[in-house]
Design brief:
The structure holds 2 protein chains of 2 kinds. Chain A is about 70% helix and about 5% strand. By secondary structure, chain A is mainly α. In chain A, α1 (about 10-35) runs antiparallel to α3. By secondary structure, chain B is an alpha+beta fold. In chain B, the strands form 2 sheets. Chain B has a 5-stranded mixed β-sheet with strand order 3-2-11-6-7. In chain B, strands 4, 5, 8, 9 and 10 form a 5-stranded antiparallel β-sheet that branches. Chain B is elongated and about 95 Å long. The termini of chain B are far apart. The chains are: A mainly alpha, B alpha+beta. Chains A and B meet through α2, α3, β2, α5 and α6 of A and β1 and α2 of B. β2 of chain A pairs antiparallel with β1 of chain B, so a sheet runs across the interface.
Chain lengths: ~200, ~240
């Protein structure tokens, strides 16, 4: 079986650094959020510090990976994710349409994940500094931060289902771990993509 | 315009022009970020409107969610544990007859019930909480506060949490020392067995896990006030909210 390269080393590192930070934030966030975990585990001040500093390091780590890695490749991928052609719109309405390196759903998922990340960081900083300065304290910050968590969790569940369980799509996991996917699979799912 | 001209002039135009698509992603990205940031202005109002419908459904589906709106905040490494046999509430300070109440004695005091709304300074609100407990005067009165007493110091078993109310604030009609919430004995997370409830002030004044009340001449900074929060934590009119 022959394989084609789907993700560069930089892209894979970017993905897994993001995943590691996200899971740390998810776990510490749940302890802070769910009453049963808070009562069982306590140590709120410590958990809060870990959650906050992980959140602050999150965009910094991603920026570092991007700057130290293959910047041009990342830019090309970002441009790819940005653009939707006629087949993408057709695909989004549930019809069959040949897809490029990313299908329209993957493009949307990446775009929304990026937007949620920005909002997580902004609202998290407001929560932290709002505790210290009333001018940065808004009654809706906590609603936004919680809402983001629910939205991101929903995206994550869908992502995990497609990457780990759904038989037709789970081969993609190979791409984000070792970098390559089978040529046959690529042709079937990403017909318009011509790997270089 | 020029394209059409070229099409007409070439008998064999390229079979299909490459569809580079339109930059939709950046629009979705910016739109989501702008919507999210703008929700700082309308998020709580919107959530308050729908939470009555959404929360019970969410609670049914995922029982661990804080659907009723409650969050459990604490400052110590572990939440205090209530032991009915050893728990005591002591009343001291500027009084003639310091008191010590055990849990049974607490329950023998005149019981009052009230329904009030609980507001946290971080923005969440729980409406229509059913409390049962005792009025402060029924607890403080027997200790005979001396002349010159001006405030109460509420000390939590959760160290180093404490806070103060002026006597005037503590006399507000709906200030309560609560041992029951929504028909059940106060749970550990909510400050078992006894907490202060002052609905007109933000949650951080509503000291949980009460173990001591001292009568003092005047108020000082409590735990959160030392970190910059207002001593007079009136809902909607303090801590940067309201005018």
């Amino acid at each position: 079986m022959s394989y084609v390269r789907r993700f560069s080393r930089t892209e894979r590192l970017f993905h897994w650094v993001n995943a590691a930070f996200f899971f740390t934030l998810l776990v510490t966030g749940l302890v802070l959020y769910l009453p049963s975990l808070e009562v069982a585990f306590g140590r709120r001040t410590l958990v809060k510090d870990v959650h906050f500093w992980t959140g602050v390091s999150w965009p910094c780590a991603l920026l570092l990976v991007a700057l130290a890695g293959d910047r041009r490749g990342l830019r090309r991928t970002a441009a790819d994710l940005d653009r939707f052609d006629r087949d993408d719109f057709r695909w989004l309405t549930g019809r069959h349409a040949p897809q490029g390196r990313f299908n329209a759903g993957q493009k949307l998922n990446a775009t929304l994940t990026a937007a949620l990340t920005v909002l997580f960081v902004v609202s998290g900083l407001l929560l932290w500094f709002g505790e210290r300065d009333t001018r940065l304290r808004f009654a809706s910050t906590v609603v936004l931060h919680d809402g983001l968590a629910f939205a991101a969790f929903a995206l994550l569940l869908g992502h995990l289902y497609l990457a780990l369980i759904h038989p037709a799509t789970r081969h993609a996991l190979r791409g984000i771990t070792v970098g390559s996917v089978s040529e046959e699979w690529a042709h079937r799912h990403h017909g318009k993509w011509s790997p270089d | 315009m020029s394209e059409r001209v070229s099409d007409e002039t070439h008998p064999d135009p390229e079979p299909a022009r490459v569809d580079h698509g339109v930059p939709v992603g950046r629009g979705v990205f910016l739109g989501t970020v702008v919507a999210g940031v703008s929700s700082l202005l309308w998020g709580k109002a919107a959530w308050d409107r729908v939470s009555g419908t959404v929360a019970p459904v969410a609670e049914r589906l995922v029982p661990v969610l804080p659907s009723s709106g409650w969050r459990i905040y604490s400052v110590a490494a572990h939440l205090p544990t209530f032991d009915r046999a050893t728990w005591r509430l002591s009343i001291g300070g500027h009084v003639d007859r310091p008191q010590t109440l055990d849990y049974a004695a607490l329950l023998e005091l005149p019981r009052v019930e009230q329904v009030s709304t609980f507001h946290c300074v971080t923005g969440w609100t729980v409406r229509n909480v059913r409390w049962a407990g005792v009025r402060i005067n029924d607890v403080i009165g027997p200790a005979k506060p001396r002349a010159g007493a001006g405030a109460l110091h509420f000390v939590s078993a959760e160290k180093p949490y404490d806070d103060y109310l002026t006597l005037q604030q503590a006399q507000l009609a709906d200030v309560l020392l609560a041992y029951e919430m929504d028909g059940k004995p106060l749970s550990r997370g909510h400050g078992a067995p006894l907490r202060l409830v002052i609905p007109d002030m933000y949650g951080y004044k509503n000291v949980k896990w009460l173990e001591r009340i001292d009568v003092v001449p005047r108020v000082h900074d409590g735990y959160w006030e030392a970190l910059g929060y207002d001593r007079d934590a009136w809902v909607g009119h303090s801590n940067g909210y309201g005018a």
